[in-house]
Predict the 3D structure of the following.
Amino acid sequence: MTLSFVGEDYLEVRDLAVDFDGFKAISEVNVTFLQGRLHFLIGPNGAGKTTLVDALTGLVRGTGEAMFRQHDLLQMKSHEIVRLGVGRTFQTATVFEQLSVLQNLDIAAGLHRSAGRLLLARRRVPESVQQALETIGLTALAHRPAGILAHGQKQWLEVGMLLVQDAKVMFLDETVAGMSAQEREETGELLRRIVGDRTIVVIEHDMEFMRTYADYVTVMHGGRMLAEGTVAEIQADPQVQSVYLGTVTEVALDG
Amino acid sequence: MTVTTVAEATAVPDANEVAAGAPSRFSPSRLFSDYGGLIGIAVLAVVLLVWAPSSLSTFRLGNLGKYCTWAIAGVGIGLAWGRGGMLVMGQGVFFGLGSYAMAMHLKLESAGAGNVPDFMVLYGDGTMPRWWEPFRSGPFTLFAIVALPAVVSFLLGYAILKRRVKGAYFAILTQALTVAFATLLIATIKQTGGFNGLNTFSTFFGQNLYDPDVKKDLYLITAGLLILFLVVVWQLYRSRYGELLVATRDAEERIRFLGYDPANIKLVAFVVAAVMASVGGAMFAPIAGIISPSNVDATASIMLVAGVALGGRASLLGPALGAIAVGFGQSSLSEQFPTQWTYFQGALFIVVVLLLPGGITSLSSRLKAVLPRRKVAV
Ligand SMILES: Nc1ncnc2c1ncn2[C@@H]1O[C@H](COP(=O)(O)OP(=O)(O)OP(=O)(O)O)[C@@H](O)[C@H]1O
Ligand SMILES: [Mg+2]
């Protein structure tokens, strides 16, 4: 682990477990998401990646502890977690299709607005929205309904919505899945541009994408942490190799 | 290559779109549709406030005034149901709070200072419950007409919406409330006039209710309130809150991840709708000359919703126009077919919701969507 990445705003997860009516979807998860890096979360289907994010964003109840800015996220409601600065996207894009790109961003930017100002019509595009539009490259499509966007553009819009929310921690659930090689590259560059002092957690299956853009990688398997480290470290890890070659899973679990 | 260039390459040129860096304003077409609503309200205002009083007889004007009280409640239902996705089947409760509050005041006004309303002598021992006393005051009554439904709907809405009750469960719950409310009224004959309700009012804030000019003024106040509330929802619909409400209706869970509690957003619409229903009810009592449980029960609540469904629940003017149309239908048809009307009204609600969810006001855009396709086929 490279020490230069250590920042002040980190999210520390301790002994996290999620139980679905007796089925332990994840257990004994200990992981720290540090500031300023693209932290990839990988693992086979059903490894518990989405469940981990669900637990950290109030969508499912988890036990353990997840501290961010002196708050335990596991005790908070989804909208409170967002207001604290932890945002996420979903495996399937969930932009408001009838609303324009601009309106989508504007709604996302609204959480810092007072109730009184909500009752007014929008007169001009807020600065943060304009900036986000440029960052995600959708300025020219600002007034188009989000429903007509291509798959990749919808995902960028979601990232833009996190930007205007000013999310300090972003969980991106399979954002580049289904994108063309070109779009992936653009997304990777976009993430590099915005990471700054943020913590960006990228859930991904595409190993090529991970190798290119990951600063740090956590591997999950069967609801547990299997390994973590730099790309080189986890690639050299025999347990990870066995999981991804689809063999000796039992051994991997025991280790 | 950067993301920006790709997005620009795929962009369809559009005169309305702002170029990057240009002063960012909303497109002219959007502005027009915003103010188009205001033009519609203005047309309705001319019809209701200028044409109707000069052309209709006092009797017909009174009827139109009654429909307008339902339309006021309908505007609120349009907000809560059309934009907020809450099928409010119990607006009779709030309509009733306003109309009973007003009727109590009118009863006390008719009885005169120090006296108790006639029915309390007739059915009871001639003593008045203490909670009637404040309604002797006109200002208090006006305050109660707004505050009472606001407090009740806030408490109810908080309890229901924070528990994430929605869809059919929400509809059934609110319908049950109105059934309970009407049952309570019927059971308390000594306090509320029971099944007969409250009637025979002689004055309205000192004005003789039998005077045609006073009747006309009542109508004008009601129609004016309707126009006022239409302007209120027009502003709400074009505000950021309006967008948020629609977004909540369409994707409640997603809204949480934008940092909003959907329950709070819906609660605002629910409370505003309740206050509007109450104000409508308050004007109903003096115009109709009576308020009884049958005006606020489940059937009455369904009638309110049916009008909104017919007119187009999510549109600006649809709920008001639909409520007026259903009121008109009720008066003209119920005279000839008193029992069938209720069935007709129920059937109307079902048919509209199933076949024309956007109501009558959506017909033109629907036709527009269908017609060009036909041409292509030919
Ligand atoms: N609501 C739920 N109820 C019961 N089991 C669930 C629920 N959600 C997820 N699971 C189970 O929990 C396990 C972890 O699922 P999860 O969706 O977190 O995996 P994932 O790593 O995100 O997989 P993928 O790569 O396919 O998205 C799976 O076995 C899944 O079937
Ligand atoms: Mg997943």
Summary: The beta strands of chain B are 198-199, 203-204, 207-208, 290-291.
